[in-house]
Every structure is written in structure tokens, then in C-alpha cells.
Amino acid sequence: MVKAVIVRTRKEFRRKDGTYIRFDDNAAVLINDQKEPIGTRVFGPVSRELRDRTFLKIVSLAPEVL
């Protein structure tokens, strides 16, 4: 069993400012116990809520933050 962080979902997600964000596909990043990604590459955009939840390494590896 491994731990993962969901970085994109097809189901829309409501942000605190009232806007909704939705992606074309579902995606997850595998992480270790220190909340760092196991891999070294992240494909596709990720949501900016990851920054608030202290997944800064995933945000820095992503090509785009929405």
C-alpha cells in the first residue's frame, strides 16, 4: 500500500472565492511518509490548493499551477 495526493479531478471543486475548477482527467502523485513525491516528474497542471496544504515540492515540479 502506498500514499498518494490527488492533484486533478474531473469532478468540479469549489474554491473559497466561489469559483469552480475542473480538470479533464484524474491524477495522483505518489508520496512518501515525509510528504515528498516519490517520482521526479509531474505531468500536467495541478491546483494551487496544494501550496496551502504544504505540498510545495509537487507544486515546484508541476509545469503549471491553476
Features:
66 residues; two-stranded antiparallel ribbon; alpha+beta; two-stranded antiparallel sheet; single chain
Strand order of the largest sheet: 1-4
What gross morphology would you assign?
globular
Radius of gyration: 12 Å
Largest sheet: 2 strands, antiparallel
Question: What's the pLDDT, averaged over the residues?
Answer: 94
Word description of this protein:
The radius of gyration is 12 Å and the shape is globular. The strands form two sheets. Strands 1-4 form a two-stranded antiparallel sheet. Strands 2-3 form a two-stranded antiparallel ribbon. The chain has helices at residues 49-52, 56-61; strands at residues 3-8, 13-14, 20-21, 27-31. 15% of the residues lie in helices and 23% in strands. It has two helices and four strands, in the order E-E-E-E-H-H.
Task: Describe what is shown at a glance.
It contains two helices and four strands, in the order E-E-E-E-H-H.
Protein topology:
Elements: E1 3-8, E2 13-14, E3 20-21, E4 27-31, H1 49-52, H2 56-61
